[in-house]
UniProtKB/TrEMBL annotation:
The UniProt record lists the keyword NADP: no
GO molecular function annotations of the record: tRNA (adenine(58)-N1)-methyltransferase activity
EC number: 2.1.1.220
Residue segments, region Disordered: 278-321
Statement: the UniProt record of this protein carries the keyword Nuclease: no
Species, as recorded: Nocardioides currus
PROSITE patterns: SAM_TRM61 (PS51620)
InterPro entries associated with the record: SAM-dependent_MTases_sf (IPR029063), TRM61_C (IPR049470), tRNA_MeTrfase_Gcd14 (IPR014816)
CDD domains: AdoMet_MTases (cd02440)
Gene3D superfamilies in alphabetical order: 3.10.330.20, Vaccinia Virus protein VP39 (3.40.50.150)
Name of the protein: tRNA (adenine(58)-N(1))-methyltransferase TrmI
GO CC terms, sorted: tRNA (m1A) methyltransferase complex
Length: 321
């Protein structure tokens, strides 16, 4: 069978076809499912509790083979997938897990040629997915407040996309600073804004000013209090469609003959996601016909309030009243 041609370099996919080459990263999986990622370097050795492997034994072979170490350990050898790379790469900030990155790319509708802004860059995990989705025809502008996180993100993104020394993905613009201050400086409007930060509700006004009509804002938050605040702020703004909040849970299954059951462990809650679409200037979404639950916006609620809901009368709690 003739060899498949390599993926064109101008696609900036972060993927190669054909024989493994020096400078690429590989992922070894042992008989117990333990993973090891490292860069192939001619003349170098990989060491484990099962002895050693020479990198030269792997360079030049098509991925998807088994090698045996000096002490008899067997390892599968593949190039790492993006989903495998991001959970094992060096971290500054916590990474956006693949299950959430996939949801963001799909439900925030990230497409080739899109103009995307993210805050913050973290360790670069979501950035890799966004860059692959927009391709060399789109743009991803990443804002990061902390310089040390930005440096980690740059190293990880450059490593995944095999960027030549001194360069990065041509669609990526990494900026050190605050989204609220930097977003208005971006030329033109943007199609998507991803907010992976502690207080995304404080950015809704500036995001609304920059998003194209029909554009999508997506917030990634960890706690229920953050979830409530960002959803209610989007509602109170009035220039977005009804926010859609959700989370995803991933559970593996054990399958051996008649023993078919859920696995004992799963990737449960990592974060909540919220999306909403930008209305055209001066337009507001139709008023919801279903009224809020009794007490939902009662005297004890102190957060942002939809414009069509009056503030409740304060409750008199003085003794004897």
């Amino acid at each position: 069978m003739p060899a498949s041609p390599d993926v064109p370099a101008e696609a900036w996919s972060g993927v190669h076809r054909g024989p493994l080459r020096e400078g690429e990263w590989v992922r070894l999986i042992d008989q117990k499912g333990r993973k090891h990622n490292f860069e192939l370097v001619a003349g170098k050795r990989f060491f484990s509790n099962k002895g050693h492997l020479d990198h030269d034994e792997m360079i030049g072979r098509d991925e998807g083979f088994t090698v045996t170490s000096s002490a008899g350990g067997q390892y599968l050898v593949f190039r790492p997938l993006l989903s495998e790379f991001v959970v094992s790469m060096p971290r500054g900030a916590a990474v956006v897990y693949p299950k959430d990155a996939a949801q963001i790319v799909a439900l925030a509708d990230i497409y080739p040629g899109a103009r995307v802004v993210e805050a913050g860059a973290g360790s670069g995990a979501l950035t890799c997915s966004l860059l692959r989705a927009v391709g060399p025809w789109g743009t991803v502008t990443s804002f990061e407040l902390r310089e040390e996180f930005a440096e980690v993100a740059k190293r990880n993104v450059d490593q995944f996309f095999n960027a030549p020394a001194g360069s990065s993905h041509p669609s990526w613009d990494l900026r050190l600073g605050d989204l609220k201050e930097g977003l208005p400086e971006i030329e033109g409007q943007v199609d998507r804004v991803i907010l992976d930060m502690l207080d995304p509700w404080n950015c809704i006004e500036v995001v609304a000013d920059k998003l194209v009509p029909g554009g999508i804002v997506c917030a990634y938050v960890a706690t229920t209090t953050q979830l409530s605040r960002v959803v209610e702020t989007l509602r109170a703004h009035g220039g977005f469609t009804e926010p859609h909040p959700w989370e995803s849970l991933v559970r593996d299954w054990h399958v051996e003959g008649l023993a078919v059951r859920p696995d004992h462990k799963m990737i449960g809650h990592t974060a909540f996601l919220v999306t909403a679409r930008r209305m055209a200037p001066g337009e507001r979404p139709p008023r919801k016909t279903r009224r809020p639950a009794p007490g939902a916006y009662g005297p004890d609620y102190t957060g942002p309030r939809p414009a069509d809901l009056p503030s409740p009368e304060p409750v008199d709690t003085e003794p004897g009243q």
